[in-house]
Design a protein that fits this description.
The protein is mostly helical. The chain has one domain. It contains nine helices and two strands. The protein has a two-stranded antiparallel ribbon. The longest helix is centred in the C-terminal third of the chain and has 29 residues. The chain is elongated, with a radius of gyration of 21 Å. 29% of the residues are buried.
C-alpha cells in the first residue's frame, strides 16, 4: 500500500501555482514571436520556439516533482531549466544572431561556437556573463552540476541524521525527500521562476527588435555598440 504524501506548506503551493502561471504567460509570449500572419520567419524565431517548448515542458515536470517531494530530481531539472535560458541568451553575445541560430539548428553545439570577441560559448562563460545581472547564478549552477552527474550529493541526500555523540549516520533510501525544510522547497521554486524570467526578458527584447523599422534598427545597433551590448535583429 502506497502511503499518502504530506501536503506542502501554503507558500510552497503558491509558488507551484506561480510556476504554472509563468508557463502560460511564456507560451503566449512565444506565440507572439511570429508576429502577424504572413510575416517572414527568421532562424532565431525557431530557436525561440524551441526554448519556450523546453521551458514549459520542464516546468510541467518540475511541478510534478515538487508535488511528489522529489528534491533530488527537481534539482537536476532546475539545472536543465537554467540551461535553456542561458543558451538562448547566447544569441545576444554574437555579432550575427541569425547565423548563430542557423548553426544551432544544423546541429552544431553551442559550447563549440564563439561570441563576438572570439570566446567559446561554454556554459561556464555564459553563466559568468549573466551573473552580473543575476548574482545567484554562479553558485546555484555550480552546485546543481553535482545533481546532473552522479556525485556525493546523491549520497548526502540519503542521510536522515548524524549523531556525533554515538558516531552514527542514518540513511534512508526512498523516492521522496521529506527531510528537506520548507526553505529548501521555496528556494528551488524561486530559482526556477528567476530562470524563466531570464528567458522572458530576452524573448521580449527580440520581439521588440523585430518591430523596429530599418532606420530604427540601425540607430539601435549604433547605440548598443557604444554600450557594448548586443541585441539580435530580425535582419542580421
Amino acid at each position: 500500500m502506497i502511503k499518502p504524501l504530506p501536503s506542502h506548506t501554503d507558500l510552497v503551493k503558491s509558488l507551484i501555482a506561480q510556476v504554472d502561471t509563468d508557463s502560460d504567460a511564456l507560451l503566449k509570449l512565444g506565440m507572439s514571436v511570429f508576429g502577424k500572419s504572413g510575416e517572414p520567419m527568421y532562424p532565431l524565431d525557431h530557436l525561440a520556439v524551441g526554448a519556450v517548448k523546453r521551458n514549459i515542458s520542464t516546468a510541467r515536470a518540475f511541478n510534478m516533482l515538487i508535488e511528489s517531494w522529489n528534491m533530488v530530481c527537481a534539482r537536476t531539472l532546475l539545472r536543465v531549466h537554467i540551461d535553456t535560458s542561458l543558451r538562448f541568451s547566447a544569441a545576444w553575445l554574437v555579432d550575427k544572431p541569425h547565423d548563430f541560430a542557423t548553426r544551432v539548428l544544423k546541429g552544431e553545439r553551442i559550447d563549440k561556437l564563439k561570441d563576438r570577441d572570439g570566446k567559446s560559448l561554454s556554459d561556464a562563460y555564459i553563466v559568468e556573463v549573466r551573473s552580473s545581472e543575476h548574482p545567484w547564478l554562479q553558485a546555484v549552477y555550480k552546485n546543481l552540476s553535482g545533481y546532473v552527474h552522479f556525485s556525493g550529493l546523491h549520497i548526502y541526500a540519503s542521510v536522515v541524521s548524524i549523531s556525533e555523540k554515538d558516531r552514527t549516520i542514518s540513511f534512508e533510501i526512498s523516492d521522496t525527500d521529506l527531510q528537506f525544510p520548507e526553505a529548501s522547497w521555496v528556494e528551488i521554486l524561486r530559482c526556477f521562476r528567476d530562470a524563466t524570467g531570464i528567458l522572458t526578458k530576452f524573448l521580449n527584447g527580440y520581439i521588440s527588435t523585430k518591430q523596429l523599422s530599418p532606420a530604427e534598427l540601425a540607430a539601435a545597433k549604433q547605440l548598443l555598440a557604444r554600450l557594448s551590448v548586443g541585441e539580435p535583429s530580425a535582419t542580421s
